[in-house]
Design goal:
Layout lengths: L3 E3 L9 H10 L4 E4 L5 E4 L4 H21 L2 E4 L5 E2 L5 E2 L3 E5 H5 L3 H4 L9 E5 L6 H13 L4 E6 L4 E5 L6 E4 L4 E3 L8 E3 L6
Parallel strand pairs: 8-9
Antiparallel strand pairs: 1-3, 2-3, 4-7, 5-6, 7-8, 9-10, 10-11, 12-13
């Protein structure tokens, strides 16, 4: 199933709180919102994609706990970006300084921040072109580093602001974090079955 885009006079006028309520009332759906305030409804991922997401999230979460500099989030976490889109990356990391700058109320919503580090993993139903546009959205809204992993083509794409995208071939490599996530290493071998 491809992504369904709801375009109507009701959904595109929802406040951030109304959108949160809409998502909570439809908690069995995977929902995001783009910067045009269109609501996006996506199908669940396949079992294999779920494994890939979990392994990447596990590696990031283990590193975050060990380093104690930030917090790792899984694929069900939504963030409200400066352009008002609400996106849920497959895995993400926010520094403790940035997280603690939010009120408890904001932490308990789709937090109004952009993670400093984002990982997206292409699933079978995803369009590579759409994911590449999403990566640009992450960078444009403040992510310092973003990785797009395509397990089908065994390719990874590294995104940074004001830099050309770097393409890495093969899953016999390790991706290495930079900047705030320097020291994080994602072993791509571990997402092969």
């Amino acid at each position: 199933m491809e992504t369904i885009v709801l375009k109507d006079r009701v959904t595109n006028k929802m406040t951030d709180d109304e959108f949160l309520w809409f998502c909570l009332e439809n908690k069995d759906l995977r929902i995001e919102r783009n910067s045009n305030l269109e609501v996006l409804i996506m199908s669940p991922v396949t079992s294999l994609s779920g494994f890939w997401n979990m392994e990447v999230s596990r590696q990031l979460a283990n590193w975050a706990v060990e380093q104690k500099k930030g917090i790792a989030f899984d694929s069900s976490t939504g963030f409200t970006l400066p352009d008002r889109s609400v996106l849920s990356p497959d895995a993400s990391w926010v520094s403790k300084t940035k997280w603690r700058s939010l009120s408890e109320e904001d932490q308990n919503k789709f937090a109004p921040i952009c993670p400093e580090f984002v990982i997206e993993i292409k699933s079978k139903s995803d369009s590579l072109q759409d994911l590449q546009a999403k990566m640009k959205t992450w960078i444009d809204n403040g992510a310092q580093l973003a990785w797009l992993i395509d397990p089908f083509q065994k390719k990874s794409f590294i995104y940074k602001s004001n830099r050309e995208t770097i393409e890495i071939e093969g899953f016999d490599k390790k991706l290495k974090g930079e900047g705030l996530v320097e020291g994080f290493v994602l072993d791509l071998n571990l997402i092969k079955l």
